[in-house]
Amino acid sequence: MRSRSINPWTRFALTVLLVAACAGLTSLGFWQLHRAHEKQSRYQAFSERHSAAPVAFDTIAPRTPLSENLWRRLSVRGHYLDQHIVLDNRSHQGQPGYEVLTPFVADSGQAVLVNRGWVPLPDSRNTVPDTLAPADPTTISGYVGPEPTVGIDLDARAADAEIMSPQVFRVQRVKVAGVESLLDRPLWPGIIYLDAEALGALTVDWQLPGDGSARNRSYAVQWFAMAIVLAALGIWNLYGKRRRHD
């Protein structure tokens, strides 16, 4: 028994839809490859900055965009202030605690927020953690990073902080603008993530970002595979069956 053949105009319309669908899937695959290339390029720039010798903080032009210094290693001569921001809900090897950020005033007078690392949570949340920083002038080093993208996204206001003591403020998310308001002091827009051997460092175990391109390549393979499967099924159903029945 011969099956009903597809009307030529219907076959043409379905062929156009098939070509459009396969082209769309293929374009998504190439877009993922483009994203992978972008991430690789960004990671290469990060690696070059991070592996280069530290740059003196005071040599950076005041109006330089932060993006031009992200992941760059810096050295700063100056002193810590006795004011501390503790970032809540940060764990290390499964133990709860805080990350401690302390303003550091460079010899030029510019203040920058320094993430000194992690401290364990005391027995009570009402107990102030150990945040003591050396008061003597010193030179520290670390790399420039963005604000930690963790915690509850609160408005950048001083009212968002809990006052644990006159010098220690607990926050759920660090925003430089909010810390400026809290400390009543202008700050450099970036954060220095302190080296483990630098004076004032606590428990330092920074996890540097990878390039993330492997995931985009995996997605690209999936889109290309879907395009191939769809093309094969469409061609078979539109034209292969016809030859078989003819």
Q: Secondary structure elements and their pairing?
A:
Blueprint: H1 8-51, E1 55-56, E2 73-80, E3 84-92, E4 95-106, E5 111-120, E6 138-145, E7 162-163, E8 168-171, H2 176-183, E9 191-194, H3 213-245
Parallel strand pairs: 1-2, 3-8, 5-9
Antiparallel strand pairs: 2-4, 2-6, 3-4, 4-5, 6-9, 7-8
Principal-axis shape equals elongated
| Number of distinct beta strands | 9
Number of domains: 2
Strands side by side in the biggest sheet: 2-4-5-9-6
How many helical stretches? 3
What do the pLDDT scores average to? Answer: 85
**Major β-sheet profile:** 5 strands, mixed, barrel
Q: Bin the helical content.
A: 25-40%
N→C terminal distance: 12 Å
For the CA atoms, what is the radius of gyration? 28 Å
> What is the strand content?
15-25%
Q: Segments where pLDDT lies below 50 for 5+ residues?
A: none
How do the helices and strands follow one another from N- to C-terminus?
HEEEEEEEEHEH
SS class: alpha/beta
